[in-house]
Please model this.
Amino acid sequence: MATAFNKFKHLPVKEKGERSVGIITFHCADNYGAMLQAYGLKRYLSDAGVQVHIVRYEPFFMTGRHWWLPYIPIGRMKRRMGMSLRGWKAHIRAGACFFRLRKKMRAFRKEYLIEKGYGKLLFSRQFRRLPFRYYIVGSDQIWNPNITLGLRAVYFGAFPSRHKKKVVAYGASLGGEVLPDQYEKRFSRLLPYVDAVSLREADAVPYVQRFRREKVTAVLDPVFLPVRKCWEDLAKSPGRKNYILVYQTEQNRELVRYVCSLAKETSLPVLELQTGAGKTGNGFLSDFAVGPAEFLGYIREASYVVTNSFHAVSFSIIFEKKFLAYLYSGSGARVKNLLRVSGLENRLYEKDKDGQIDARIDWEEVKRKMKGHIRFSEAFLKENLPMLSKGD
Model:
């Protein structure tokens, strides 16, 4: 990894050259999927010899939601205060675990995502002095206005820069198949700043194609780009085996009922990773303070995984686990798309279907199917990043 200096203008000449790539994504979110997809893309490009850095764009509208007293600048003051109060109460319930979790998130970010000496950027005008010729925006839900509190120009590469040559969207997500009508005009104005567009969900391609002459395509989430051993090496073991892992990004009563039934059938304990979705109150073992590396370890060592998280499904596939997926309300397209391309549609929960989670999986066939999609995703990057296509 290239040496970083205190100011971008003092970067070595080689980092200002044609091989320099800056990634703009949700690396600053205390979220397993956000941090692991950022690591996956950075690791893949770095292993390919690219001078790649994650741009430390860390605006308050992204980082504030993770503060002890959350800052959520959306809507009228009364709504803002109500949302902050609810978040604060959740943090109080978590107690000391809140601070342990934050510490692990910061440690992972510092060790694997950002280099020492790269200052935080809060506003688009600060991008002017960045040295990168190429920018990748994405992956993750960078074009989901519910997360970014409106469509933000930076996530389209729409910022002034002395050196910017090309902006590539890799695996960008709207959060669903379409955007709400009120955002279409701004979306149509911002999209031309992106020179090449790929999305994470194939179902959203027709919608985005409406606003663009150039081809829009679908690629895999960056976590599928590095080889499995990269994730094996990164994972931290939880120190236990033989359990049912539950991870909910929103509470799902049907999921909990199923897990209770599965635990009874298998006589295995249930271990639940706790998030903002809250505690289920079903007597499950739980862990409030899990960092990204521990998150990987819990999935790797589980006997079963039951989840409505896209990235928990993704790593269940990578680690070849017995798993069952539930859809997140309003944004299940990405899970359905992943199960479709991997040939694992039967892992989507179906009510009253006995033995579904124990159905045999032909992992060699899954790897064969995924290999084609991985090559296609790599081809998109090689086509749009000349330093990759040269293979030097």
